[in-house]
Amino acid sequence: KWKGEGTTKNLENIVIGRCYDYIRIVNPAVGEKNCSQIWEAFKNAFINKDPCSILPKDYELFINLSLHTIPPNKSLFWENNQLLVNRFADRGRRYMSLGDTLFGFFGDFLNWCGQADSPGLDYESCPTTMECENNAVESFWRMASITYAQHSSGVIHVLLNGSADGGAYPQPGFFADYEIPNLQKDRISQVVVWVVDDIEGPDVDSCGIHSVKILETRLKTLGYDVICTDNNKSVMFLLCLDNPDNSKCALASSAPAAQRGPISSD
Ligand code: ENP
């Protein structure tokens, strides 16, 4: 009856398994967590309720049980480049995006909703945010975003897609609406904005123009030390892995050497 995809099959097994994977292997530094209790708190946020009346605060217990330290200088915010961010962050080894925290890892790539007057999950369909914004998944990510921003500290990074249709800094968007307002100004030393275009995509947005300028101005007005750079080299290397022959992927140091050809003896 809803327009969105239904609950991911085997949801309970997936999230409980993910939780143990996270605390035992991905990031044991979080310490002991009770994964079945975290699942119960997660489920109780939305089961037996009208699927359009789920609020971020319904996930409060879930968040309290799954919360852990986010190391300073490791936070990575993003918009419109989830798979790139997943690869770049490397499950928390390089950066810790929301999807690399226990609470974000729990829900990443999944879908879920319950139904009024029934303890069962709805595997057929779930409401989209267009149908109602107070749905189980949207409210989950709002709560997770707020928490993630509140616990981020040191130098924080934002990786934006300079080829995105609506601009690199979407408004409305999670970063604009739930993350920026919840950053703890006193604990943040700098905000580093990276705008990276898709290798074969258009150059829609860059530092200092369009939506990125709006973002830079907003952050500076809030009192943050902001720096913005286009096409960060490390991120470019990652993109170039799949597009080695693209002209944007010529390695600066080796290209001239290769063009010179073999060294002659005379
Ligand atoms: P999209 O629309 O590009 O990607 C949504 C996909 O990313 C979904 O598979 C979603 O899981 C997963 N995801 C991981 N983290 C988030 C998230 N944090 N979030 C919504 N979905 C997330 O992402 P958005 O909507 O632009 O969100 C990007 C935001 O995430 C940025 O603000 C970034 O800083 C933040 P699922 O369960 O829905 O399938 C917040 C909202 O971390």
Furnish the topology, listing elements before pairings.
Layout lengths: L3 E2 L5 H16 L8 H10 L15 H7 L8 E5 L2 H8 L6 E2 L4 H6 L6 E2 L2 E4 L3 E2 L9 H15 L3 E8 L12 H6 L8 E9 L13 H12 L4 E5 L2 H8 L13 H7 L6
Parallel strand pairs: 2-3, 2-7, 7-8, 8-9
Antiparallel strand pairs: 1-6, 4-5
This protein binds etheno-NADP.
Describe the structure.
- There is one protein chain.
- This protein is an alpha/beta fold and 266 residues long.
- It is built from ten helices and nine strands.
- Strands 3-2-7-8-9 form a five-stranded parallel beta sheet, with helices on both faces. A two-stranded antiparallel sheet has the order 1-6.
- It starts with a strand and ends in a 6-residue tail after the last helix.
- The protein binds etheno-NADP.
- The site of etheno-NADP has 22 residues, from strand 2, helix 5, helix 6 and helix 7.
Name its key features:
266 residues, alpha/beta, five-stranded parallel sheet, two-stranded antiparallel sheet, 10 helices, 9 strands, binds etheno-NADP
Please give the number of β-strands: 9
**Multimeric status of the protein:** single chain
Proportion of helical residues: 25-40%
Order of helices and strands: EHHHEHEHEEEHEHEHEHH
Separation, N- and C-terminal Cα atoms: 79 Å
